Amino acid sequence: MIYTTKALILHVLEHTNKKNIVSMYTEHSGYQSFINFEGRQKFHPMSLMEIVAQHKEKAGLGYIKESRLLVHVNQAQFDMRKSAICLFINEILYKILHNKAEDATLFDFLYNSLFFFCKEPYLADFHIRFLTSLMRHLGVQPVDNYSTVNNFFNPELSHFEPSITLSSQEQTIYQCFHQILSEEEYFCSHKRKPILQQPIRNLLLEKILQYYTCHICDMSKIQSYEILKAVCA
User: Fold this and answer.
1) Which domain holds residue 63?
2) DSSP 176-204
3) pLDDT (tens digit, 9 = 90+) per residue, 68-114?
4) pLDDT per residue as tens digits for the range 132-170
5) Do 84 and 137 belong to one domain?
6) What's the Cα-to-Cα distance from 171 to each of 51, 145, 207, 217, rounded to whole Å?
7) Hey, which residues does 13 pair with through a beta bridge?
8) In this structure, are residues 147 and 160 in contact, taking their beta carbons and an 8 Å threshold?
């Protein structure tokens, strides 16, 4: 079967015999890995591509016949902050989307969000808003029942509940999380949202990663996390 699809490149494994293996999340058939021969267009993680792929049922990996670059999300190497966020999101998505089936709504979210990130100036909390919106598309969005009483977020139970022992900083973190949960997706809004300040960003991101660990997969060993904190401090 030969088909054309948009794809988000997640990982490129250099291989012998002048070829490499490209892993991607595609609009047409979800997570896929294809062989790409040397001499054809090179692939880079976090590129949005259009590919023509050939895949034979029960015949192992398919082949990339043609490809066209749409957007290279991590093209702004001169901005180390955007590159650090891009590297972090790439590592998260590679863990989450591995073997993920086709989902047109999810793909549209990824495409539109990353296109927005590429074209806009540096947004210090983009990754936080991105991961929060992504919960909805993965089917694990928390219940946003935040109030002055329900002021603590329980990651295991996926909702807010009462607590009388929170510090003022913790109260701010959970209030910010509630506000982001209630917002429309970043790329859909014409109104620029206020940027979360440090150290709230790092502390809130830790809570979000903890939530992903509870409901999706282990996020305790994200290698790019320390890079992100150092570069975007």
Assistant:
1) 2-72
2) HHHHHHTSPPGGG-SSPPPPPPTTHHHHH
3) 999 888 765 578 899 999 999 999 999 999 989 999 999 999 999 99
4) 999 999 999 999 999 999 999 999 999 999 999 999 999
5) yes
6) 47, 15, 13, 27
7) 21
8) yes
> Can you tell me the distance from the alpha carbon of 198 to that of 127, in angstroms, rounded to the nearest whole number?
14
- At how many degrees (to 10) do helices 104-119 and 80-96 cross? 170
Distances (CA, A) of 76 to 42, 82, 87: 18, 7, 12
148/120 same-domain check: yes
Calculate the alpha carbon distances from 97 to 48, 78, 92, 107, 208 in Å. Answer: 15, 28, 9, 11, 17
Q: Kindly report whether the peptide bond that precedes residue 199 is cis, defined as omega within 30 degrees of 0.
A: yes
Q: How many helices (H) and strands (E) does the chain have?
A: 6, 7
- Residue 9's nearest CA partner among 56, 55, 42, 39 is 42
C-alpha distances out from residue 87 to 19, 77, 90, Å? 24, 11, 5
Q: Which single residue is written with the structure tokens 């901005």?
A: 79
3-class SS of residue 9? strand
pLDDT 10s digits, 166-222: 999 999 999 999 999 988 776 665 555 667 888 889 999 999 999 999 999 888 889
Strands (E), the chain: 2-15, 19-26, 30-37, 47-54, 62-72, 152-154, 159-161
Q: Do 68 and 86 fall within a single domain? A: no
* Sequence letter at residue 230: A
Residue finishing a domain among 72, 98, 125: 72
pLDDT on residue 51? 95
Domains in the chain, number: 2
User: Do residues 49 and 86 both lie within one domain?
Assistant: no
